[in-house]
Q: What sequence folds into this?
């Protein structure tokens, strides 16, 4: 039976498969995968980096201008893509935050009007849809074209390579395969660009912690992709099973975010920080010098702005990251003020040989900022300073409260079981906070387990560290 006679199949649909739509030679020229990357674009001189960046930026701006969300905002601000003559001109483009995306979704459900791809044309331009975690409000969808998936996977493969994963390795992927991008992005990077063998265990709810440990052990996995906290739980389980995480496993890479020192000493491998987020995937990764994260500048322009005013901040000063991707073909992110805190290094040659610009590690959320007696305070900074005491567990929770007529902050800490001079812990932490932040913050000391309900450490992939109780 000829295809046009099959009921329900339209003869004139121009079906194009994902593998037919991408010019892979062009893709690898634009965004070299590892290991080639580290001998090419990674070592490019600064003028070449910026020339290519500007070229990509202009192309991307022209495309973004065809997407209603951007066109509306740019027209209102009197900006046209033709005005982009230098990288500096990017500062003329209006930025937006997650609130603008939320509004766009409310006005145009369910996708918003910020997508640069469509579900209706999926047969000829295949798309994948993923949604942001709902940690800060309703899930936000992003449509990815096949080019976006592949280029994004290359960036992630670079990060994994720098972190110690090698082609052909067996890697356990313990992220949740869900509507969220994470597990798939790792999976695609590992399988498609590093030819790794992925053990798709999913989280502890899908594959038990004991089974995860067994698999990592039996197959000699070189990395287990999950949170830093879960990685430490896996180590506890391994010991319970009579295995030594350092000597009985083949873990060589720790792409896990968490207590770096504890992870390194537990598993006997090195941690390299990285940074990325749902809508654009992997942005930057630390090099072996451990002095900042190199930004993949063939794919991104990263700026730092004042979290309150959106004004440009000088290099070295901490503020909110404003990210522009220049690698996609589908849904653009063009001056997205993601409200993650970090800072930029000036462009200079790193000891590793790369001129790629570096940013500091993720330092917390700008929208968690609390103004205390005129001082801007971030809960993550409070936690970091408060924890500088060997008698404390690496666990904290910060609450913003309203007491009397003023805003206040309380930080909850956990004393280790073997601590000495318990009564001096809280006053010393309060003094440290006052000295560094310039405001007094109350410290409440508890016992191991006391914070679990607040941090949701056993139920949430990422421990919660902050709650604003001023409005409730
Ligand atoms: Zn470097």
A:
């Amino acid at each position: 039976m000829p295809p046009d006679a099959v009921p329900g199949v339209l003869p004139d649909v121009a079906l194009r498969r994902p593998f037919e739509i991408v010019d892979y030679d062009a893709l690898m020229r634009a965004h070299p995968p590892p290991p080639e990357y580290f001998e090419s674009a990674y070592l490019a001189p600064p003028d070449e980096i910026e020339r290519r960046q500007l070229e990509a930026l202009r192309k991307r701006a022209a495309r973004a201008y065809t997407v209603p969300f951007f066109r509306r905002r740019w027209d209102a601000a009197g900006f046209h893509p033709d005005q982009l003559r230098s990288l500096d001109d990017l500062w003329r483009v209006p930025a937006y935050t997650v609130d603008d995306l939320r509004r766009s979704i409310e006005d145009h459900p369910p996708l918003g009007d910020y997508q640069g791809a469509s579900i209706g044309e999926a047969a000829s331009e295949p798309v994948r849809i993923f949604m942001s975690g709902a940690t800060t409000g309703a899930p936000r969808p992003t449509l990815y074209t096949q080019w976006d998936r592949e280029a994004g996977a290359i960036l992630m493969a670079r990060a994994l390579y720098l972190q110690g994963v090698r082609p052909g390795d067996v890697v356990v992927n313990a992220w949740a395969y869900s509507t969220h991008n994470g597990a798939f992005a790792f999976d695609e990077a590992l399988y498609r660009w590093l030819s790794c063998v992925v053990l798709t265990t999913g989280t502890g709810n899908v594959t038990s912690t004991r089974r995860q440990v067994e698999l990592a052990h039996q197959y000699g996995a070189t990395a287990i992709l999950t949170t830093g906290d879960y990685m430490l739980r896996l180590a506890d389980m391994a010991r319970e099973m009579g295995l030594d995480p350092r000597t009985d496993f083949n873990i060589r890479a720790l792409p896990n975010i968490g207590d770096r020192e504890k992870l390194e000493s537990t598993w006997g491998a090195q941690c390299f920080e990285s940074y990325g987020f749902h809508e654009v995937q992997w942005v930057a990764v630390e090099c072996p010098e451990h002095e900042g994260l190199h930004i993949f500048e063939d794919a991104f322009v990263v700026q730092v702005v004042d979290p309150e005013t959106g004004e440009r901040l000088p290099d070295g000063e901490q503020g909110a990251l404003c990210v522009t991707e220049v690698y996609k073909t589908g849904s653009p992110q063009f001056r997205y003020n993601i409200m993650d805190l970090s800072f930029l290094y000036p462009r200079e040659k790193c000891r590793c040989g790369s001129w790629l610009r570096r940013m500091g590690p993720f330092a917390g959320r700008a929208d968690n900022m609390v103004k205390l007696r005129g001082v801007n305070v971030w809960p993550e900074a409070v936690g970091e300073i408060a924890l500088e005491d060997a008698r404390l567990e690496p666990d904290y929770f910060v609450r913003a409260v309203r007491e009397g007529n003023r805003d206040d902050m309380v930080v909850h800490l956990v004393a280790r079981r073997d601590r000495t001079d318990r009564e001096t812990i809280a006053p010393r932490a309060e003094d440290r906070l006052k000295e560094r932040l310039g405001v007094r913050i109350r410290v409440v000391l508890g016992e191991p387990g006391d914070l679990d309900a607040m941090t949701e450490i056993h139920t949430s992939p990422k421990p919660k560290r902050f709650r604003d109780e001023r409005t409730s």
In short: The chain has a mean pLDDT of 92. The first helix runs from residue 18 to 21. The domain at 369-468 is CATH 3.30.300.30 (GMP Synthetase; Chain A, domain 3). The chain has 13 helices and 20 strands.
